[in-house]
Amino acid sequence: MKCYVINLDRSADRLAHIQQEFARADVPFTRVEAVDGRLLTQEQLDALVDPVQRWEIRIPPSEIGCFLSHRKCLEIVATGQDAYGAIFEDDIALTHHARRLLTSADWIPEGADVVKLDTFKTVVLLDNFRKIPDSACQVARLYTKHLCCGGYIVSREAARRILQRMDTISVPVDNLIFDPAYELFSDLQIHQVTPALCAQIGLASLIEADRKQERRRVIARPSLPALIVREIARSYRRSSHILSPSKLWTRLTTSKRWTKVPFIL
Fold first, then answer.
1. 198 in helix, strand or coil?
2. How wide is the angle at C-alpha 175 spanned by C-alphas 171 and 178, nearest 5°?
3. Element (H, E) at 128
4. CB under 8 Å to 191, separation ≥6 — which residues?
5. What is the b/e burial string over 51-89, where b = at least 16 CB atoms within 10 angstroms of the residue's CB?
6. Which of 132, 235, 238, 251 shows the shortest CA–CA distance to 191?
7. How far apart are CA 215 and CA 58, in angstroms?
8. Which residues contact 236 (CB under 8 A, 6 or more apart)?
9. Within 10 A of 195 (CB to CB), how many other CB atoms are there?
Protein backbone atom coordinates (compact mmCIF):
# COMPACT_ATOMS: atom_id res chain seq x y z
CA MET A 1 0.00 0.00 0.00
CA LYS A 2 1.45 3.33 -1.09
CA CYS A 3 0.87 6.75 0.50
CA TYR A 4 0.11 9.81 -1.60
CA VAL A 5 0.34 13.38 -0.28
CA ILE A 6 -1.35 16.33 -1.99
CA ASN A 7 0.84 19.43 -2.07
CA LEU A 8 0.74 22.71 -4.03
CA ASP A 9 3.92 23.78 -5.78
CA ARG A 10 3.82 27.10 -3.91
CA SER A 11 3.46 25.42 -0.49
CA ALA A 12 7.10 24.54 0.20
CA ASP A 13 6.57 25.06 3.93
CA ARG A 14 3.81 22.46 4.00
CA LEU A 15 5.96 20.04 2.03
CA ALA A 16 8.75 20.43 4.58
CA HIS A 17 6.23 19.83 7.37
CA ILE A 18 4.78 16.68 5.86
CA GLN A 19 8.24 15.32 5.03
CA GLN A 20 9.11 15.60 8.71
CA GLU A 21 5.89 13.85 9.74
CA PHE A 22 6.40 10.87 7.44
CA ALA A 23 10.12 10.67 8.22
CA ARG A 24 9.30 10.55 11.94
CA ALA A 25 6.86 7.70 11.23
CA ASP A 26 9.42 5.99 8.97
CA VAL A 27 6.87 5.77 6.14
CA PRO A 28 7.65 6.68 2.52
CA PHE A 29 5.20 8.72 0.46
CA THR A 30 4.72 10.03 -3.06
CA ARG A 31 4.01 13.71 -3.55
CA VAL A 32 1.09 14.48 -5.86
CA GLU A 33 1.09 17.98 -7.30
CA ALA A 34 -2.10 19.67 -6.18
CA VAL A 35 -4.36 21.53 -8.57
CA ASP A 36 -4.33 25.26 -7.81
CA GLY A 37 -7.93 26.37 -8.26
CA ARG A 38 -6.87 30.01 -8.26
CA LEU A 39 -5.04 29.46 -11.57
CA LEU A 40 -8.13 28.15 -13.38
CA THR A 41 -9.99 30.52 -15.68
CA GLN A 42 -13.64 31.33 -15.06
CA GLU A 43 -14.51 29.30 -18.15
CA GLN A 44 -12.67 26.29 -16.73
CA LEU A 45 -14.37 26.70 -13.36
CA ASP A 46 -17.81 26.97 -14.96
CA ALA A 47 -17.17 23.80 -16.98
CA LEU A 48 -16.19 21.86 -13.86
CA VAL A 49 -19.03 22.88 -11.54
CA ASP A 50 -22.42 21.17 -11.78
CA PRO A 51 -25.05 23.75 -12.77
CA VAL A 52 -27.31 22.41 -10.02
CA GLN A 53 -26.03 23.84 -6.71
CA ARG A 54 -26.30 21.13 -4.06
CA TRP A 55 -24.04 22.62 -1.39
CA GLU A 56 -24.92 25.43 1.03
CA ILE A 57 -22.74 28.01 -0.74
CA ARG A 58 -21.16 28.48 -4.14
CA ILE A 59 -18.04 26.32 -4.39
CA PRO A 60 -14.95 28.60 -4.39
CA PRO A 61 -11.93 28.01 -6.68
CA SER A 62 -9.73 26.71 -3.84
CA GLU A 63 -12.37 24.07 -3.02
CA ILE A 64 -12.49 23.09 -6.68
CA GLY A 65 -8.71 22.71 -6.69
CA CYS A 66 -8.91 20.46 -3.62
CA PHE A 67 -11.58 18.32 -5.29
CA LEU A 68 -9.48 17.93 -8.44
CA SER A 69 -6.37 17.11 -6.38
CA HIS A 70 -8.14 14.25 -4.62
CA ARG A 71 -9.45 13.12 -8.00
CA LYS A 72 -5.85 12.91 -9.25
CA CYS A 73 -4.92 10.69 -6.30
CA LEU A 74 -7.97 8.48 -6.76
CA GLU A 75 -7.04 8.05 -10.43
CA ILE A 76 -3.57 6.89 -9.37
CA VAL A 77 -5.05 4.34 -6.96
CA ALA A 78 -7.71 3.23 -9.46
CA THR A 79 -5.15 2.52 -12.19
CA GLY A 80 -2.43 1.12 -9.95
CA GLN A 81 -1.48 -2.42 -8.96
CA ASP A 82 -2.09 -2.15 -5.20
CA ALA A 83 -5.41 -3.22 -3.69
CA TYR A 84 -5.39 -0.10 -1.47
CA GLY A 85 -3.85 3.36 -1.45
CA ALA A 86 -3.63 5.98 1.30
CA ILE A 87 -4.32 9.63 0.45
CA PHE A 88 -3.29 12.55 2.66
CA GLU A 89 -3.40 16.32 2.65
CA ASP A 90 -0.21 18.15 3.63
CA ASP A 91 -1.44 19.87 6.81
CA ILE A 92 -1.79 16.79 9.02
CA ALA A 93 0.14 15.40 11.96
CA LEU A 94 0.70 11.65 12.19
CA THR A 95 0.38 9.66 15.38
CA HIS A 96 3.35 7.69 16.68
CA HIS A 97 1.91 4.33 15.60
CA ALA A 98 1.27 5.34 11.99
CA ARG A 99 3.85 2.98 10.50
CA ARG A 100 2.00 -0.19 11.48
CA LEU A 101 -1.16 0.85 9.66
CA LEU A 102 0.47 2.46 6.63
CA THR A 103 2.93 -0.25 5.67
CA SER A 104 0.46 -3.15 5.58
CA ALA A 105 -3.15 -3.68 4.56
CA ASP A 106 -3.64 -6.89 6.55
CA TRP A 107 -5.69 -5.10 9.21
CA ILE A 108 -8.26 -3.54 6.85
CA PRO A 109 -11.71 -5.15 7.32
CA GLU A 110 -12.84 -7.42 4.51
CA GLY A 111 -15.10 -5.55 2.11
CA ALA A 112 -14.02 -2.09 3.28
CA ASP A 113 -14.16 0.50 0.51
CA VAL A 114 -12.78 3.45 2.48
CA VAL A 115 -11.05 3.66 5.87
CA LYS A 116 -11.04 7.15 7.36
CA LEU A 117 -7.77 7.81 9.17
CA ASP A 118 -8.33 11.37 10.39
CA THR A 119 -10.82 12.98 12.74
CA PHE A 120 -12.86 16.17 12.75
CA LYS A 121 -13.65 15.52 16.45
CA THR A 122 -17.40 15.60 15.92
CA VAL A 123 -19.80 13.02 17.33
CA VAL A 124 -20.14 10.02 15.00
CA LEU A 125 -21.89 6.65 15.14
CA LEU A 126 -19.59 3.62 15.00
CA ASP A 127 -20.19 -0.13 15.17
CA ASN A 128 -18.41 -3.48 14.79
CA PHE A 129 -15.27 -2.39 16.62
CA ARG A 130 -12.23 -4.54 15.89
CA LYS A 131 -8.85 -4.32 17.58
CA ILE A 132 -6.03 -3.82 15.08
CA PRO A 133 -3.27 -6.32 15.95
CA ASP A 134 0.05 -4.86 17.11
CA SER A 135 -1.54 -1.44 17.40
CA ALA A 136 -3.22 0.83 19.94
CA CYS A 137 -6.08 1.43 17.50
CA GLN A 138 -9.42 -0.08 16.63
CA VAL A 139 -11.31 0.07 13.37
CA ALA A 140 -15.10 0.36 13.24
CA ARG A 141 -17.85 0.84 10.68
CA LEU A 142 -18.82 4.51 10.21
CA TYR A 143 -22.55 5.26 9.89
CA THR A 144 -22.77 9.05 10.12
CA LYS A 145 -21.20 12.20 8.68
CA HIS A 146 -17.55 12.75 9.48
CA LEU A 147 -16.04 15.46 7.30
CA CYS A 148 -12.48 16.31 6.25
CA CYS A 149 -10.22 14.38 3.89
CA GLY A 150 -6.96 14.83 5.80
CA GLY A 151 -6.20 11.12 5.52
CA TYR A 152 -8.02 8.05 4.26
CA ILE A 153 -7.39 4.66 2.68
CA VAL A 154 -9.36 3.68 -0.41
CA SER A 155 -9.53 0.37 -2.23
CA ARG A 156 -8.70 0.24 -5.93
CA GLU A 157 -12.24 -0.85 -6.80
CA ALA A 158 -13.83 1.85 -4.63
CA ALA A 159 -11.58 4.50 -6.20
CA ARG A 160 -12.96 3.53 -9.60
CA ARG A 161 -16.54 3.82 -8.34
CA ILE A 162 -15.93 7.15 -6.62
CA LEU A 163 -14.39 8.57 -9.81
CA GLN A 164 -17.64 7.89 -11.63
CA ARG A 165 -19.24 10.53 -9.36
CA MET A 166 -16.48 13.09 -9.91
CA ASP A 167 -17.02 14.19 -13.51
CA THR A 168 -18.56 17.43 -12.29
CA ILE A 169 -18.35 19.15 -8.92
CA SER A 170 -21.52 19.73 -6.93
CA VAL A 171 -20.15 19.48 -3.36
CA PRO A 172 -16.68 19.50 -1.72
CA VAL A 173 -14.83 16.20 -1.85
CA ASP A 174 -15.22 15.49 1.88
CA ASN A 175 -19.00 15.91 1.63
CA LEU A 176 -19.07 13.70 -1.45
CA ILE A 177 -17.40 10.79 0.35
CA PHE A 178 -18.15 11.26 4.06
CA ASP A 179 -21.60 12.89 4.19
CA PRO A 180 -24.78 10.71 4.15
CA ALA A 181 -26.66 13.70 2.70
CA TYR A 182 -25.15 12.71 -0.65
CA GLU A 183 -25.71 9.42 -2.45
CA LEU A 184 -22.16 8.07 -2.56
CA PHE A 185 -21.96 7.53 1.21
CA SER A 186 -24.63 4.81 1.16
CA ASP A 187 -22.89 3.05 -1.74
CA LEU A 188 -19.63 2.68 0.17
CA GLN A 189 -18.62 0.58 3.15
CA ILE A 190 -16.74 3.18 5.18
CA HIS A 191 -14.73 2.42 8.31
CA GLN A 192 -13.04 4.64 10.88
CA VAL A 193 -9.75 4.19 12.73
CA THR A 194 -9.94 5.21 16.39
CA PRO A 195 -7.94 6.81 17.88
CA ALA A 196 -7.34 8.57 14.58
CA LEU A 197 -4.08 8.01 12.77
CA CYS A 198 -3.80 11.67 11.82
CA ALA A 199 -5.43 15.06 12.25
CA GLN A 200 -5.23 18.40 10.54
CA ILE A 201 -3.24 20.78 12.72
CA GLY A 202 -4.61 24.18 11.78
CA LEU A 203 -2.09 25.44 9.24
CA ALA A 204 -3.31 28.47 7.31
CA SER A 205 -6.02 27.23 4.95
CA LEU A 206 -6.97 29.05 1.76
CA ILE A 207 -10.01 26.78 1.46
CA GLU A 208 -11.37 27.74 4.88
CA ALA A 209 -10.74 31.42 4.19
CA ASP A 210 -12.63 31.16 0.91
CA ARG A 211 -15.50 29.31 2.59
CA LYS A 212 -15.85 32.05 5.20
CA GLN A 213 -15.75 34.77 2.56
CA GLU A 214 -18.42 33.04 0.49
CA ARG A 215 -20.65 32.54 3.53
CA ARG A 216 -20.31 36.23 4.38
CA ARG A 217 -21.38 37.03 0.85
CA VAL A 218 -24.63 35.07 1.02
CA ILE A 219 -25.51 35.03 4.71
CA ALA A 220 -26.45 38.17 6.64
CA ARG A 221 -24.92 38.61 10.11
CA PRO A 222 -27.39 37.20 12.65
CA SER A 223 -28.99 39.34 15.32
CA LEU A 224 -27.93 39.09 18.98
CA PRO A 225 -30.86 36.77 19.93
CA ALA A 226 -30.04 34.56 16.94
CA LEU A 227 -26.40 34.40 18.02
CA ILE A 228 -27.44 33.33 21.54
CA VAL A 229 -29.70 30.61 20.17
CA ARG A 230 -26.92 29.43 17.85
CA GLU A 231 -24.43 29.13 20.70
CA ILE A 232 -26.91 27.20 22.87
CA ALA A 233 -27.59 24.83 19.97
CA ARG A 234 -23.86 24.43 19.36
CA SER A 235 -23.27 23.53 23.02
CA TYR A 236 -26.06 20.95 22.87
CA ARG A 237 -24.64 19.37 19.72
CA ARG A 238 -21.25 19.01 21.37
CA SER A 239 -22.75 16.90 24.16
CA SER A 240 -25.70 15.42 22.29
CA HIS A 241 -24.15 11.95 22.24
CA ILE A 242 -24.71 11.99 26.03
CA LEU A 243 -27.89 14.07 26.39
CA SER A 244 -29.99 13.01 23.40
CA PRO A 245 -32.64 10.40 24.39
CA SER A 246 -32.48 8.73 20.97
CA LYS A 247 -28.70 8.46 21.08
CA LEU A 248 -28.80 7.19 24.66
CA TRP A 249 -31.32 4.54 23.56
CA THR A 250 -28.97 3.50 20.75
CA ARG A 251 -26.12 3.12 23.25
CA LEU A 252 -28.24 1.01 25.61
CA THR A 253 -29.95 -1.27 23.08
CA THR A 254 -27.38 -1.82 20.31
CA SER A 255 -23.65 -2.32 19.92
CA LYS A 256 -23.40 0.98 18.05
CA ARG A 257 -21.66 3.78 19.87
CA TRP A 258 -21.95 7.56 19.59
CA THR A 259 -18.51 8.97 20.21
CA LYS A 260 -15.89 11.51 19.22
CA VAL A 261 -12.86 10.01 17.51
CA PRO A 262 -9.78 11.21 19.44
CA PHE A 263 -6.33 11.94 18.09
CA ILE A 264 -3.31 11.19 20.27
CA LEU A 265 0.18 12.06 19.06
1. strand
2. 155
3. strand 123-131
4. 108, 109, 112, 114, 115, 116, 139, 140, 141, 142
5. eeeebebebbbbbbbbbbbbbebbebbbeeeeebbbbbb
6. 132
7. 9
8. 243
9. 16
Q: Is the peptide bond before 195 cis (omega within 30 degrees of 0)?
A: yes
Residue 93 CB contacts under 8 Å (≥ 6 apart), including other chains: 21, 198, 199, 201, 263, 265
Q: Please, is 189 exposed, middle or buried when counting C-beta atoms within 10 Å of its C-beta (0-12, 13-18, 19+)?
A: middle
Task: Tell me the sheet residues that pair with 124.
Answer: 259
**CA–CA separation, 188 vs 259, rounded Å?**
21
Q: Is 21 helix (H, G, I), strand (E, B) or coil?
A: helix
Sequential pLDDT tens for the chain (265 residues): 999 999 999 999 999 999 999 999 999 999 999 999 999 999 999 999 998 888 888 899 999 999 999 999 999 999 999 999 999 999 999 998 899 999 999 999 999 999 999 999 999 999 999 999 999 999 999 999 999 999 999 999 999 999 999 999 999 999 999 999 999 999 999 999 999 999 999 765 656 665 555 555 555 555 666 556 555 545 544 444 444 555 544 554 568 999 999 999 8
**H/E run at residue 20:** helix 12-25
Which residue type does 32 have?
A: V
Kindly give the residue spans of alpha helices, DSSP state H, lying in 80-134.
98-102
Type of residue numbered 3: C
